[in-house]
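Researcher: We're teaching a course module on how sequence relates to structure. For the next exercise, students receive a sequence and then see the predicted structure as tokens, so they can try to spot secondary structure elements on their own. Here is the exercise chain.
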Amino acid sequence: MVSLNKSEKINKRFISEEKKDMISGYLYIAPFFIIFAVIGLYPAIFSMFLAFQKWNGLNPMVFVGLDNFKVVLTDPLFWKSVYNTIIIGLMGTAPQLVIGIILAFLLNLSFLRFRNFFRVTIFMPYITSMVAVALIFSVLFSNHETSLANYVLGVFGFDPVNWGTSEWGTKIAISIMVFWRWVGYNTIIYLAGIQSISNDLYEAATIDGANKFQQLLHITLPLLKPFIILTVFFSTVGALQLFAEPTVFLGAGAFTRDEAMTVVMYLYRDAFKLQSFGTASATAIILLFIIVVFASINTLLTSGIGRKKRGANG
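Model: And here is the predicted structure for the students to work with:
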């Protein structure tokens, strides 16, 4: 009986220690979940509820069912913002993914001098203040004939462009800004992926007579597929949530013109300019659906990289 009592005490002490470890573990991770619930989960749930209400932020809410979605989906400005978002996203995001791979491949070359300097330099735009970036690009793409962009066009015999007011001029300027700011971020991710590839593969390819381009095409790209899928997913989500670049670049008139009105700008205008929080929440839900669709399509297309090559080898 005495031995049984001792074993029971030991088991209880062991269980209590386990409980203490479990409670302490939950306490360590609790701040993240509390912050996420307050600033992430609750606003998302409240926004879904608000999408079916008519509310200006002051008066009592009125349930309107799907009317907010009808208002948004029948608004030509909304579809214009979807068009602008997709076009600017394609022009600003797709080139940076391709050029990012090329730059990462070049920055990984062993004979390249000052590699660390170039790596730091190409990453600098990502950590630069968005306000500073917008100010620089507002000068580069000024409507004045003597701006740098118009001067370069004049060298090649083209007429000056009103970058801040014309339909395509605004889109091109913002797309270049997005490209310049994010190409270094993707380059560093690709560079990390390339450095994880064994040098034995490149040495064997060199012995077999493969040049640098063939190594990039048949070794680097297939083995970079997880990194490419990651950057394509993040770039798609970021492109469809474009807000800061066009807002800061266009200044005070960003919400009164439709040349570069994005979906998030449309959402912001409804909520904080027109005090129509119901239609803004409905727009957010529609945007979520658009992001899921485009991200899924891009991920499926990207996942096919290197598949034919592996099938042929098999």
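Model: If you want an answer key for the exercise: The chain has 14 helices and two strands. Residues 308-314 have pLDDT under 50 and may be disordered.
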